[in-house]
Structure formats: structure tokens, C-alpha cells
Amino acid sequence: MSLVSASVFCLLLLIDGVLSKQVCSKQDVLDYLNLTRGNEKFTTCRPPLDWTKPTIVYFDIHLFCILSVIEKSQIFVPFLWMTARWNNDLILWDPKDFCGITNVVLPKEMLWVPDLFILEAIEKEEGLPNPYLTITYDGNVTMEDDHKIISTCALNVHKFPFDTQTCHITVFSVNHSDKEIKLVPASNSTKATQMARDLLLTQGEWELLNISVSNQNMLYEGQSFQTLKYT
Ligand SMILES: *[C@@H]1O[C@H](CO)[C@@H](O)[C@H](O)[C@H]1NC(C)=O
Ligand SMILES: *[C@@H]1O[C@H](CO)[C@@H](O)[C@H](O)[C@H]1NC(C)=O
Ligand SMILES: *[C@@H]1O[C@H](CO)[C@@H](O)[C@H](O)[C@H]1NC(C)=O
Ligand SMILES: *[C@@H]1O[C@H](CO)[C@@H](O)[C@H](O)[C@H]1NC(C)=O
Ligand SMILES: *[C@@H]1O[C@H](CO)[C@@H](O)[C@H](O)[C@H]1NC(C)=O
């Protein structure tokens, strides 16, 4: 008798547990943040609530392949994977309130993104840019994109085929000085070189020797702009 009642009790508990299980969607997180398409609070301005604080953008470039090196027109065409990560302090939620959701992928036009350009690029690349960003519960925003970059490079192939060429890729923000955007390399030279060696799909007649990453300031109209230089 007592055995039967014990098992009934267990069964009830189990049903109760199933019924109270929370169901969440990633849309609930966006609703909680009031992060809607066209909400200017998120799209117009650089995110720190205190405007005197710069936005630190961790930037990384991975070299996938060298598509071409044309001496006559001094053109270097690498295919790169670029990632940029920064913090947006308007974005914050507790994963415990949303069934453990820790990240949400959303269209790029819903949030402010830094305007990053490559100094050496001479032609807008074709192809579709990745239209999405990933946000995390603690406000990290990640932007990832692959690009074919048609860039200028001072080439000197007199000693072909035993020559060494040095090309630069310089990343900077057009509209924001270094008081507003600080670019920080996510990988140092050692790591960037190692990753490029691991990733490089086709080297063709070129062998990658070294990638060095450096941070420099560029002066323009009396303002200092920070640049990241990959060589
Ligand atoms: C959410 O955003 C909408 C439009 O962008 C605005 O009208 C509304 O007041 C906001 N609600 C809250 C709670 O901030
Ligand atoms: C967000 O970025 C900070 C600083 O770089 C890092 O410490 C933290 O682990 C990141 N959060 C997630 C969820 O990746
Ligand atoms: C940023 O710079 C670009 C290129 O110079 C310009 O087209 C754009 O209007 C600027 N954006 C802002 C918000 O000033
Ligand atoms: C470069 O980064 C790697 C891994 O992130 C680290 O182990 C190494 O010590 C760093 N090297 C220098 C010179 O900072
Ligand atoms: C690669 O560049 C780094 C940083 O500029 C330098 O310390 C290292 O000696 C270079 N390695 C080679 C093989 O050129």
C-alpha cells in the first residue's frame, strides 16, 4: 500500500516539473532589450553611455590566400577573413532569465558598427558582405567578414624568383579619432603569422614569411587616428 502511494507522488512531481519548464526564444531577448529594427538608440551613436570613453575594437585579420601579385600595376590581392569585436553597454541580459541563451545573431543594420577601412584598398571588392552580427549577454558584439582586397603594394621583382615582397594592410576608422575608437590587435605578430601559415590554402609561387602587426597613429586635420598595420 505504501509503495503504491509513493510512486504516485513521484509521478506528480515529474508532471509538475515538465509543466513549469520555461520556453524562450531569441526574440524574447531582443524584446527585453527593446532592440528593434530602426531603434535609433542602437543604430545612431557609438555605444558607451559615457561618450568620453573610447570604444575598444579588437581586430583580427586571417590571410586565406594570395589571389594575385601583379608587378606591372603594383597590385596585391589577398583574400582575408576579418573579425572585429567591441562592447556595447546598452546590451546586457542575464542568461538565467532566458533559459540560458548567451548569444543572439542579428542583422547588422540594427546596431552601430565601427566604420573600418583599409588604406591600401583601391577598389571596392565584389561579393556579398556578411549581413549579420553576433551579440553576447555581456554586450560583446562580433562582426565577421571575408574580403577580397585589391590593394596597392610597392613591388620589386627584379630578383625573381628569389625576391621578398613586403605589403601592408592598414586598418583605420574614417570618422572616429583615437579618442573615440581604439583599435587593438587581437593577435600579436607571432600568432598572426602562425594562423596565416595554418590557414593559407594556396601559396602558389609565394611563400609567406612573416606577418607583423603594429599600432600606429596617423595625423589628419589636427586629429590623431589610430591605425593597425599588418605587414
Ligand atoms: C522601445 O523603442 C521604441 C521605438 O524605438 C520606443 O518608442 C519605446 O518607447 C521603447 N521602449 C522602451 C521601454 O524603452
Ligand atoms: C566579452 O569580452 C570580454 C573582454 O574582451 C571578455 O572578457 C568576455 O569573456 C567576453 N564575453 C563572452 C561571452 O565571450
Ligand atoms: C564616415 O565617413 C564616410 C567616408 O568618408 C562618409 O561617407 C560617411 O558619411 C561618414 N559617416 C558619418 C556618420 O560621418
Ligand atoms: C603572442 O600571443 C601568444 C598567444 O596569444 C602568446 O603565447 C605569446 O607570448 C605572445 N607573444 C608576444 C611576443 O607577446
Ligand atoms: C617576423 O617579424 C617579427 C616582428 O617584426 C620579428 O620579431 C621576427 O624576427 C620576424 N621573423 C622572420 C622570420 O622574419
UniProtKB/TrEMBL annotation:
It comes from the Eukaryota. Keywords: Receptor. This is 5-hydroxytryptamine receptor 3A.
